Amino acid sequence: MSSGASNPTAATMDKPVSLKRNSEDIGWEYGVLVDPNDLNVIQCKLCPKVAKADIYRLKLHIAQKRGQVTPCPNATHEDIARCKQAIEDSSKAKKARLLEQQEVRDNVVIDVPSDKEDETGLHEIGSSSQATVGPMDKFTKPLDASSLSKKIQPKISEHIMKERLHKLKRYIARWLYVRGIPFNAINNEEFDQMLEAAGCFGPGAKKPYQHELREKLLHEEVSDTKEMLKLQENEWAKNGCSIMTDAWTDQKRRSIMNLCVNCSIGTSFLESKEASSESHTGELIF
Ligand SMILES: [Zn+2]
Fold this sequence. Notes:
286 residues; three-stranded antiparallel beta sheet; binds zinc ion; disordered N terminus; single chain; 3 domains; alpha+beta; flat
């Protein structure tokens, strides 16, 4: 790490370099952070433009790339050329990264080579290689899994399917081992459904972005959960309910009180409350 670049106190120094992110990015030669704690508000050094976005957009501004940002009026031909080059390089790097990710996926092989199928002696006249999974299967999906398994699957595929499944399991196992995921994290309907959804989607399925996990997907899940609780809430109003509490002590020795509501449909969790400083009298619990 270069000295001072990531030190927030350096922000008080005269040199704008102190507000430069610790980065090799050429964009930082043309921009300076307005606030050292916010990497997304950047002031152009050549004009009064403040880009309320990342360094990439500042480079678009210097490179006079019209459409997304207003072009910098004071950039010289050299500045423009340098930033254009940097944008091109980073898009090349991005393409290379995508290619690499694709290669990682392309290395996923769960299909058993077709010559192995012949070795098993299960090759049937007429059925040829229909039951094996070939390149075209990327674009198709069994119309009816049960009919497929009855007609073609048993003879040819039983052995192959077993081997494919084994390979799939090895990918799951590796993810658990390498990332230190508790084994029981897969013992639930959510994991089963995820696996099924990925399988139904077919090759090229995409994982969510972390941003989506924090925002959109989380909000959707919360609203689904609230929707599920509505049924119970109606029941509370109609036939009554009991509010239950349960106190426990967490690893930091904080006293936590859980509040649950029970009704004829079931029990749901309302909230938990830290009550370390209060004595748990009947009055408090009430
Ligand atoms: Zn500018």
